[in-house]
Fold this sequence. Notes:
The complex is a heterodimer of chains A (290) and B (316).
Chain A (H helix, E strand, L loop, with lengths): L1 H31 L6 H19 L3 H27 L4 H27 L14 E4 L2 E4 H23 L1 H11 L1 H6 L4 H26 L6 H16 L4 H22 L4 H15 L9
Antiparallel strand pairs in A: 1-2
Chain B lengths: L2 H26 L2 H26 L7 H16 L5 H23 L5 H21 L4 E2 L2 H5 L3 H24 L1 H11 L1 H6 L4 H26 L2 E2 L8 H13 L5 H20 L3 H16 L3 H14 L8
Antiparallel strand pairs in B: 1-2
Helix pairs in contact in B: 1-2, 1-7, 2-7, 2-10, 2-11, 2-12, 3-4, 3-5, 3-10, 4-10, 7-8, 7-10, 8-10, 11-12, 11-14, 12-13
Amino acid sequence: MSVLAQQLVLGVLIGGLYGLAAAGLSLVFGVLRVLNVAHGDLIMLGGYAAFWLFSLLGLDPFLSLLAVVPAALGIGVVLYTGLFGAVVRFPDETRIKNSLLVSFGLAVVIHALAVKLWTADERSITTPYGGDVLTVAGLAVPKVRLASLILAFALIALVHLLLTRWRWGHAIRATAEDWQAALLVGIDVRRAYLLAFAIGTALAGAAGTLVSIGYSVSPSIGLEWSLKALIVVVLAGLGSMMGTFVAGVVLGVAEAASAAAFGGPYREVVGLVIILTILVARPQGMFGRS
Amino acid sequence: MTRRGATLGRAASIIVIVGVLAAAPTVVRRDDIVNFLFLLLLSITLAESWNVLGGYAGQVNLGHAAFFGTGALVTRALWATGANVILCMLAGAAAAIVFALAIGVPAFRLRGAYFAIGTLVLAEILRITVGNLLPEISTLPTIAIARYRLADRYYLALIVAALAVASVAALERSRVGLGMRAVREDEDAAEATGISALQVKLVALALSTGLAGLAGGLFAYYHISYYPQHAFTSGWTFDALLMTYIGGVGTLRGPLLGAVFYIFFKEYLAIHWVDFHLLIFGALFIAIVLVLPGGLVDLVGRVKRGTSKGPSTQTG
């Protein structure tokens, strides 16, 4: 029983990261109608950034968020200007499919680049405090992962506040609701797209940093994290940052439970089965609006 | 050139190409070149197979590896019992088709990008499951290794690739091929003209996965040892997608041209940098989706029309 409880605790902890990984994807998909399957590869880049800041400059990985997130924001601006700005020009009917294809190409490029630059080895950050454990009611809670969960929640809450309180946050939400109507009332839709995309990329960078601390990064984690993020987005629907965080935790717990029931190797399968079931049961209306 | 002349010319060039490929192993007698040509033929089969569903019927299948892998798995398992390899490959293709049709009806409830995600997820489930159930490397028994002849693999690959190209050529002229293109352009409009979109998509799925199963069978027949999971990895899907789009999606010649271009470049670049080709082809793929949706065949066509100034003969 306590083994199961321990598994579930670890499931909750990684679930927060799933929520953070999905938040960026959800924002970009909801606002731009761009399905960025390279989102996991952006997470991977964030992970490497934190890893190199730590191993070359000795920068504490949690502090490196302050460098990685603005850098990711910049990469988001570059990617939107150079690539996704062209994708949003497709008409609504073909935009999602074309965005999927373009981001698939981007994922191939980023993956090849990462293998080229950093080899296919798995890397993770080992800090002096990495092994510290908090014991609550007989259950071990690794402090680093707990901090990651709290940070993930804080970042998602911050984006939620930006979207609900900030002037441009209103513009982004209006654009997501109906871009033509937003254009009519004088919102700079292009600027809203750019902001949403850049914030989404920044969230990927933050998620990557946290992944490299508690877990590990390698060039091939891109597809894996894109799938995790997709599963969470499908679970949560679009439009609610907090809902995305909760869905992430749900996925983490579901994985832990299935690993306990069917054995470790199948922990990845449960999420995939969930997404497949939801997709087939609600083929059109799964993303909030039909 | 007259229409009849063009047809004769095309027939002659096909005979020459097949003849040259058939004679290749006896003339060059170099294993590295025959291996390379085998890889080329396998890639042509894989690209054309993806093209049927993804190109003609417009359903982007990101789970193609699942059917390639199924073909490989079944072929290898039956072949290990000592059965005739051609029968084993046919059984592998049949298994891929049966599996595809079983998932086809629910999968085609999904449209566009959701179909793509659904198939990607399905292939991942299969890959993980096969990796867990069959973690051991699959190696041929010593006696089979002693009898291994590369030429056998090569000729079988030539036959399968020819079959793939011929079936797409036949599809292009057929009624069901027209139906596929109608569904691709506008599913609701196609339904309104009396086409059963589901039926047409299932036909495309069956042909596509059957050919992918044959390609998987070739892979299983060719390799002395490999991890069963390897045939299920997403790389097979990604290769097929890159080759098809770069060559020209939804055309007969596109995947052919794309496969030749891709494999030659991959081999050339591999001499200097491993996996560097993916960097270039990924970027090329993006450029093609954004600015040249017809692919290289379209580009070649435009250049030809630009220089000869004559009316274009509609081909491929």
